[in-house]
Amino acid sequence: MPSVAEKTTLETLSSCFPLTFPVPTPTIHPALLTVDDIRREEDLLRNPSSFRAWWTAIQTTREAFDTELKAEWRANTISDESTQLLGPLATPLSRRSLQCLTYLYEAALAQFPGSFKLWKSYLQMRMSYVLGRLVQKKKAGGRKKFPEMKDALEEEREDAEEWEYGLNAVVGWDEWRALVATYERALMWLPKLPRLWLMYFTLFSHPMCPPVVSHTHARRTFDRALRTLPPSLHSRIWVRYLLWAEGKGGATTVSVYRRYLAIDPSVTEHYASILLSPADAAPRPLEAAKLLLSLARKAARGEYVSPEGRSPYQLLGDFIDVVERFSDEVGLDVHETVQSNEAYAKAEAQQNGSLEPTSVDGRLVRTAGPAVTVAAADGKPPPAYDEDEDPLSKRKLNIERIVRKDGLEVYKDQGGRLWTGLATYWIKRGEFDRASNTFEAGIASVLTVRDFTQIFDAYAKFSESLLSAMMENLQNPDEDEDEEDAKDTEQELDVKMKEFEALMERRQFLLNEVLLRRNPNDVQEWQKRVALWDKNDEKVAETYTKALETVHPRKATANFHRLYIDFAKFYEEGGASGLAEPDLGSARKILEKATKVNFKTVEDLAEIWCEWSEMELRHENYDEAIRVMQRAAAIPKNTKISYHDHSLSAQARLFKSLKLWSFYVDLEESIGTVESAKAVYDKILDLKIANAQIIINYAAFLEENQYWEDSFRIYERGTELFTFPISFEIWNIYLSKFVKRYGGSKLERARDLFEQALEKCPPTSCKPLFLMYGKLEEDHGLAKRAMSIYERATQTVADQDKFEMFTVYIAKATANYGLPAIRPIYERALEVLPDKQTAEMCLRFAALERKLGEIDRARAIYAHASQFCDPRVNPKFWAEWNSFEIETGSEDTFREMLRIKRSVQAQFNTEASYLAAQTLSTKRSNGASTEPTPPPSDPMAAAEQQASGAKGPAFVAATITTLPRPEGTEAGPTQQETNADEIHISDEEDL
């Protein structure tokens, strides 16, 4: 109860009102006019129809009062209590200013009742005295196109007006009511202007607005605005309307939003979030769930696009989140779910079994039968009514059917989230057995490891929490619980514990089942499943049998044939544990069945036969092993079948499998006769499937059994079948075997073989054959023929082998003819070899001439080789020439050697670093002294000066003069640097 003082204060303040009703005039309130206002009134009486006169008078008066009010506020003469209750009308001056301005505005509006400018200014003035001071917000940019409703709501919420020091609704109720009446009069004159309506709506969101105005009157005003304004402007009204409804909450929010969703469903997601987290009322999860379910279904059909960019699956996920949070309010219980599922199943069965309607175009009159969907104007049938999508319906949802139909059947790759959501729903309802069955069903249906892991982890966590809750219940029993209930709880705990342990033990098997469901033709996963059973022979045999029945041979992954082989070994070895008796009969039946399977590759079928034969060998059934391979290698009448023709079965192409024949021939060599092995080898050659290794093995087998000529014929046959470079290996072995066998007894035949081999041999492979040929002539033939073969080799072999071939040729010629006879060979080598190898050959040639005493010829050879040798790259050559000149030369020859060395060095110095250094050295020498260069003091200095001033070398340049510089070498010395190799010789000294 308010005190007496408070009542007195309220009555005192309320007595100041109303201020503007009735409209203040000088007759009623003489204080409105002063002596200074007489001239203004006379001007207005003389020009009542001049809008400019009225507007000027109003603005002048308003500015004058604003100045006085600001001065009064700065003086701070107003009590805080009056400011809180009266706001802008707390002082007599402010109340007088309101009355005076109201008088002027009303008089002007009597002359111009249809002026929007005048009404807007008048209403803003009245609002500033009632609502308080408007807090201006900074806005960037100009006017934009009206956005989508979701964005418009956000923008309007951010740009909402804020007021300070408003008039209290209890004290100033009369003034609030007068302001509302003024707005009503303005809208009576200008009902089609949306700006006036928006300004009017501002009153309803003000925190001090009286409840009588801000509730029912506000709702009716919004409705009148929608009925009055054209539809193109409704969006601006709805923005304020929806925000106002959100502020009121409860049934008002629901009613307004339902009306708007009928024309624009784009804010359905926003509305659903409001229903789940209302401001002042209980949540409505059932309606929100139905709205989200409807959106998810429409988005899946392409009839709805989320303004927030959410996919159909994300919308369905939001629906599942609501179901998990409000399981009791949204979904049916177990009994109702079962009944609903049965009803849906019965309805679907009736629909599938019903007859088609006689007509749907209206030509025939239908008197019976099911309802027929009538097409709309656009040709599409209207959507059928679904009570699950009707937010007005109070019927709860069958969550299990919705998740299966709208989730699992559509989003097969998101089974983990959907199954866990459904199980969580049952957990929240306390239906733990139903939740466990849901987890089991999910694990038994998912196809990816990710979904399986998600479901299994949730299942394990649920089991652990259930066990912990039961254990806690046993430790802290209720007072009403007796001993029998405790025993029942212990027994149930034991059962749950065993189920949990069994679940953890089954994890590997469940994961394997997931992978096999995803790809039942995955051979590796079937082998893993066999390994999981370990020593359980019954389960292993069952798994093998199921795998062979399930896997499609043409779709299987790699090593499908290994399943048959391993299954046969399972019976051969007495089961997985090895404790049972070996069952060769069952193993043979499995392998026999495998030989009739159309594998993707012939090699898989060939390995089946080879493994079968090996099994017979392990059990010493040698004849049976031979018979198995004879069956496998049976040659059909038509041998022109292509091995790579995949349109034919693997059995039809098996006879051309080299793997099969290789095993067969090895078997014949091991336990068969020579004749039978030769017959197998001949069949391989006749089928034209032999490779070089088969040829070599056949010939080696004949050689081991003393069939020399037959082995040589096989080699010759192999050289005819294959070309180089494959035949090179056959020729190499053949010729070495022939020479080793006959030596010189069949020399002409050996020569013919070598000539035949060299005829088609490429230059890159003929060097070993030439060396073998030359060795044959040296050992058993003529030296002259051997030399001709070596000479021929130097002309035929590849460039990278010529240096080595010339080295061998020179060595052989030296041994046979002596040193003088090898000069022509050296000269020919210098013409043929590349520059880099020419330098090395020149050093050897010069050493030969020094041995023969030909000093001048050796010096000429050194001079010729110098053009290929950079002093920084080949210091060995220059050191050897330097020692040669010291030992055998004179001052002139030594000077010539130094001149050539400098010329060669300058020839090779073409790098940018050398040129830059040379330029810098020239600038320094020019800047240091401008005197002419003194004459050389000795002949050696003159030679050096002449060499440095020469324009080019004194010999014919090589074709390649720039050699790569080795890493770590410095650039060549400049002309000012001293030469480390230079030898200073005095004029008086004799060499």
From TrEMBL:
Family annotation (Gene3D superfamilies): Tetratricopeptide repeat domain
Bias (Basic and acidic residues): 981-991
GO annotation, cellular component aspect: post-mRNA release spliceosomal complex; Prp19 complex; U2-type catalytic step 2 spliceosome
Residue stretches making up the Pre-mRNA-splicing factor Syf1-like N-terminal HAT-repeats domain: 174-265
Primary location class: nucleus
Keyword hit for Transcription: no
Domain Pre-mRNA-splicing factor Syf1/CRNKL1-like C-terminal HAT-repeats, residue spans: 553-946
InterPro entries: HAT (IPR003107), HAT_Syf1-like_N (IPR055433), HAT_Syf1_central (IPR056350), HAT_Syf1_CNRKL1_C (IPR055430), Syf1-like (IPR045075), TPR-like_helical_dom_sf (IPR011990)
Localization: Nucleus
GO biological process: generation of catalytic spliceosome for first transesterification step
Residue span, Pre-mRNA-splicing factor SYF1 central HAT repeats domain: 394-551
Composition bias, Polar residues: 920-931
Region of interest called Disordered, as start-end residue ranges on this chain: 920-991
SMART domains: HAT (SM00386)
Keywords (A to Z) from UniProt: Coiled coil, mRNA processing, mRNA splicing, Nucleus, Repeat, Spliceosome
Annotated coiled-coil segments of the chain: 479-506
Function: Involved in pre-mRNA splicing and cell cycle progression.
Family: Belongs to the crooked-neck family.
Subunit annotation: Associated with the spliceosome.
Name of the protein in question: Pre-mRNA-splicing factor SYF1
Annotated organism of origin: Paxillus rubicundulus Ve08.2h10
